[in-house]
Design brief:
The chain is an alpha+beta fold and 149 residues long. It contains two helices and seven strands; from the N terminus they run ααβββββββ. The strands form two sheets. Strands 2-1-3-6 form a four-stranded antiparallel β-sheet, with no helix packed on it. A hairpin with a 3-residue loop joins strand 4 and strand 5. The chain starts with a helix and ends in a 12-residue tail after the last strand. The N terminus is likely disordered.
Length: 149
């Protein structure tokens, strides 16, 4: 009985270690410190390819200009706010281009969202693979309930 319990406990630890190691290797490892940028990745946990990086706004993630271009539109599964704190330090992500449709706001203190499947725009749509534009705003520009984490 003791041998069976020991084996079971070791097996449980073996399954827990990769999950912890994976989390630390993703968005935590990608965190650059406060460098003034917003970033997005194709997959969860800041993996699968960086879609874009910019200190500015981008009105259309699917066009050929700005920090996010071409294949970045409707492709993000994780996002990061490494912007400077103060003033317009919140990133508002939008369902449509030109900063329209529903939105979700990421405060600088949240650092990143590693899995957008659990977040929704203010219009109810899932944020995962649905971002088409973003802009830097003040916290007061975001409605209650629009903050993502």
């Amino acid at each position: 009985m003791t041998l069976a319990l020991t084996t079971l406990a070791l097996a449980a630890v073996g399954f827990a270690v990769p999950a912890t190691a994976h989390a630390s290797a993703g968005c935590n490892a990608a965190w650059p410190g406060r460098d003034g940028n917003v970033r997005a990745w194709k997959d969860w946990d800041c993996a699968g390819g960086l879609l874009g990086v910019t200190a500015g706004n981008d009105s259309n993630w699917s066009d050929g200009s700005g920090g996010f271009q071409g294949g970045a539109g409707n492709a993000a599964s994780s996002v990061m706010n490494s912007g400077y704190v103060g003033g317009k330090d919140v990133v508002a992500f939008y369902y449509f281009s030109n900063y329209s449709g529903g939105y979700g706001c990421l405060k600088p203190g949240e650092l990143y969202v590693d899995d957008l499947t659990r977040d929704h725009f203010t219009d109810g749509h899932s944020m995962n693979d649905n971002i088409l534009s973003h802009q830097w705003v003040t916290e007061s520009a975001c409605a209650a309930g629009s903050f993502i984490s």
